[in-house]
């Protein structure tokens, strides 16, 4: 089974069925959304590896969705649209899309675009693993290989859950991670009691890394949404 999770955003049921059936046949995992609001919810909740996005949606323009996703994530976005004018392609790419496929399209071309994106993701991941075995943000340093955390060169003693939370946030620095995404990553579920536990662990983590927990420097709360690690200069 291919481990990549792909979000298909398409309001036309027949095209959506064609794409999802193709993905299933080639062992991709997938989610689907028929409008912009659902697309943003699915993207923020499940953090897919790739988004296949139609621009002509009933509730909002696809370019707006690209800009919203780019505000918190660098997940690859491949536009699949009937808009074939160069100006439309440029607008989508300038907004943050990674690729543009014009309708009508062949299944073979779609799969080829996915393979290219998949190879790029793998290269980025390998490069990240080599170059970023040590994460530094302001006075905070995480040695992923040794499993140690330092603040102002002093080693911090974190619980396993606190360490996993800190690593998850640091590996997604600048991105807002939703409660659902974090609890699924840490505990493998998103029950209400896990979200309550998340708040407790986040509070204890902040006491250890923030000089003023009530005015956090590293971890920002997005009320009702989740948390984000800020880049500290």
UniProtKB/TrEMBL annotation:
OmpR/PhoB-type domain segment(s): 132-231
CDD domains xrefs: REC_OmpR_KdpE-like, trans_reg_C
DNA-binding region: 132-231
Keyword annotations of the record: Cytoplasm, DNA-binding, Phosphoprotein, Transcription, Transcription regulation, Two-component regulatory system
Any one GO CC term of the record: cytosol
InterPro entries listed in its UniProt record: CheY-like_superfamily, OmpR/PhoB-type_DNA-bd, Sig_transdc_resp-reg_receiver, WalR-like, WH-like_DNA-bd_sf
Modified residues (4-aspartylphosphate): 54
Protein's cellular compartments: Cytoplasm
GO BP annotations listed: positive regulation of DNA-templated transcription
Region forming the signal peptide: none
Domain Response regulatory: 5-118
Main localization, broad class: cytoplasm
The keyword Lipid metabolism appears for this protein: no
SUPFAM superfamilies named among the record's database cross-references: CheY-like
One MF term in the entry's GO annotations: phosphorelay response regulator activity
Keyword Lipid biosynthesis appears in the UniProt entry: no
Function: May play the central regulatory role in sporulation. It may be an element of the effector pathway responsible for the activation of sporulation genes in response to nutritional stress. Spo0A may act in concert with spo0H (a sigma factor) to control the expression of some genes that are critical to the sporulation process.
Stated name of the protein: Stage 0 sporulation protein A homolog
